[in-house]
Specification:
This protein is an alpha+beta fold. It is built from 14 helices and 23 strands.
C-alpha cells in the first residue's frame, strides 16, 4: 500500500525548510524552500509506492547525468532513501518562472527562437538515447535567460527498466503522441518527443494551452497563419504538419526539427531571403507541377484570383505602373464599372482598369526574375476632363457614387455642387490603357532605381520578356 505524506509550511526536509507551495500533482508537490541563505524549489513525493518512487529516482538519475546539456533543469540537492517508511524522497531545483508566465505579452518571433533552444536540448538528449516523453508547457521553465526542460519523471534512457504497464498510456494530455496513448511501453520515445514538441511549439505560438487534436492542418482554424502576421510561415506550417504525422516513422527526427526551425528563423531574420522564398512559394502554389515558361489568364475572375494570391502576403511584391513609379500591390476587387477591376497599390486610392490579360513569365533560372504582367484594355475616357492630354494614361477622378465621376479638385475642397462629398466618395485613377508589371520586392529588377521610369510600358509584351531574359542570363 502506498504511503501518503502531507506537507506543511516550516517542515524541514533534508535541511530545507518549506516556505510556500508552488504546485502539486497526483503524486507529488513542489515547494519554495530555504536552506540557510540558499533558495530552491523542492520536489517531494506525496504518494510513495514502488512504481512512483522508481520514476522519481529515474528522474534524478537522468537529470544528474545530463547536467552538461544546456536546457536540462539543474538539480542542486537531493535525497533518495533506501527506506521510504523512515525518510522522504526529495530533490531541489532552482526557483524558475513558469512557461505560462514567461509567455505572456511576447511576440511570436522571439518565442520561436526560444523554442529552438529547447529543440537543441532535446536533440542532444536524443543523441544519448534519452527521451523525455512528457513535453508540455507545464514541464518547461524559464531560468537564466532561457527555457529549460523539467519533470523527467517519464524519462526513458538506455538500460532503464520501464515501469509503464503494457496497454497503459504515458504522457501529457494535450500534447501526447497517439502511439503513447495506445502502447507507451513499446513506442519510440524519439518520435513521441518530436510530436509533443511540435504541439508545444504550437501552444507557444498561439498561447492556447488546450492545443488541437490530431495532425496539424494549415487550412483549418488552427493555422499559425492567424497569429504570425508579417512572418513567412510556409516552412513552419510544413514542419508542424510533418511532426504531427499519425505514423511515428514519418516524422522528422529532432536534428531535422532543429535545422528546419533554424532555416525558418534565418528567413524571417532576413527580409531579402524571406521575400524571395515567399515569391518562390507563390509560384509553387500556382503551378504545383512546375512553373511554365509563360501562361496567360484572360477571364476577369481568374485574374482577380491570381492577383489576390500575390496581394495577400504583406510586402511580397512591387508593382510598376504605366508611365513610371510603383509600390506594393495589396488588394484587388471588382470595380463598380462593368468589366473593370480595382487595384490598391499601397495608397488610400484604388487604380481601376479593364483587364485585357494577365501573363506570368518564367525563365528557368533564379525565380526572382519571374514576373506577372497585367495589361489594361484600351478604353474611352469618361469625358469628365475636356483636355485629353490630361487623362493619358489615366484620369484621376472622384467616384462620388458607383460609376459617377467628378474632377479630382473636389476632393481637396470636400465639396461638390455646394455640398460636402458623400462618405462613400473615393479618389481613383482610371487607366485608359497601359501595362503593370509585378516583381518580388527583393528582385534585382526592383533594386535598380532606373526601372521606375516605366520602361516596361514602352516595350511590347514580347520585347519586355526578351529584355528580362537577357538580364537574368547575364547576372
Amino acid at each position: 500500500m502506498a504511503k501518503r505524506n502531507n506537507y506543511k509550511k516550516h517542515h524541514i526536509i533534508g535541511g530545507w525548510k518549506l516556505d510556500s507551495l508552488l504546485g502539486k500533482g497526483g503524486n507529488g508537490e513542489v515547494w519554495a524552500a530555504k536552506n540557510n541563505d540558499k533558495l530552491g524549489a523542492i520536489k517531494l513525493l506525496k504518494n510513495i509506492r514502488e512504481s512512483i518512487y522508481t520514476r522519481f529516482k529515474a528522474e534524478v538519475y537522468a537529470v544528474n547525468n545530463n547536467q552538461d546539456i544546456d536546457g536540462v533543469v539543474p538539480i542542486k540537492d537531493f535525497g533518495l532513501p533506501e527506506d521510504t517508511s523512515r525518510s522522504i524522497p526529495w530533490f531541489v531545483m532552482p526557483i524558475a518562472t513558469r512557461f505560462s508566465d514567461w509567455r505572456k505579452d511576447k511576440n511570436i518571433f522571439p518565442v520561436v527562437k526560444e523554442m529552438l533552444m529547447l529543440a537543441k536540448t532535446l536533440e542532444q538528449l536524443h543523441s544519448r538515447n534519452v527521451h523525455h516523453r512528457d513535453i508540455k508547457p507545464a514541464n518547461i521553465l524559464f531560468l537564466n535567460d532561457r527555457l529549460y526542460l523539467s519533470d523527467f519523471g517519464l524519462v526513458k534512457y538506455p538500460d532503464r527498466k520501464d515501469v509503464t504497464e503494457k496497454g497503459s498510456d504515458v504522457g501529457p494530455k494535450f500534447t501526447m503522441a497517439p502511439e503513447m496513448r495506445r502502447y507507451a511501453s513499446e513506442a519510440n520515445g524519439s518520435c513521441a518527443d518530436v510530436y509533443s514538441f511540435a504541439k508545444t511549439l504550437w501552444i507557444a505560438i498561439t498561447n492556447d494551452l488546450k492545443c488541437f487534436d490530431g495532425q496539424y492542418n494549415v487550412f483549418s482554424t488552427i493555422s499559425v497563419n492567424n497569429y504570425c502576421k508579417g512572418l513567412y510561415t510556409k516552412t513552419l506550417n510544413d514542419l508542424l504538419s510533418d511532426c504531427t504525422e499519425h505514423t511515428p516513422e514519418k516524422r522528422p527526427n529532432m536534428s531535422e526539427v532543429v535545422e528546419r526551425l533554424e532555416n525558418w528563423i534565418k528567413i524571417n531574420d532576413d527580409f531579402h531571403d524571406k521575400n524571395l522564398t515567399e515569391w518562390f512559394d507563390l509560384q509553387n502554389k500556382l503551378f504545383p507541377a512546375g512553373a511554365p515558361s509563360s501562361v496567360t489568364w484572360t477571364n476577369t475572375e481568374d485574374i482577380i484570383t491570381v492577383l489576390n494570391e500575390i496581394a495577400h502576403i504583406p510586402s511580397l511584391n512591387h508593382t510598376f505602373l504605366p508611365g513610371g513609379g510603383g509600390n506594393t500591390f495589396t488588394d484587388v476587387k471588382f470595380a463598380h464599372e462593368k468589366g473593370f477591376i480595382a487595384l490598391k497599390i499601397s495608397t488610400k486610392m484604388y487604380d481601376i482598369l479593364k483587364p485585357k490579360k494577365l501573363t506570368y513569365e518564367s525563365f528557368g533560372v533564379d525565380p526572382q526574375w519571374n514576373y506577372f504582367r497585367l495589361e489594361a484594355e484600351e478604353v474611352e475616357n469618361t469625358g469628365v476632363y475636356k483636355n485629353d492630354s490630361y487623362v493619358y494614361p489615366y484620369e484621376e477622378l472622384i467616384e462620388i457614387a458607383p460609376v459617377i465621376y467628378i474632377e479630382r479638385h473636389h476632393w481637396d475642397n470636400n465639396e461638390y455642387n455646394g455640398k460636402e462629398l458623400p462618405e462613400e466618395a473615393q479618389i481613383t485613377c482610371r487607366y485608359v490603357k497601359g501595362s503593370f508589371v509585378i516583381f518580388s520586392t527583393r528582385s534585382y529588377y526592383n533594386q535598380v532605381s532606373a526601372t521606375y521610369d516605366g520602361r516596361h510600358d514602352k516595350f511590347s509584351e514580347k520585347e519586355f520578356r526578351e529584355y528580362i531574359e537577357r538580364s537574368a542570363q547575364n547576372v
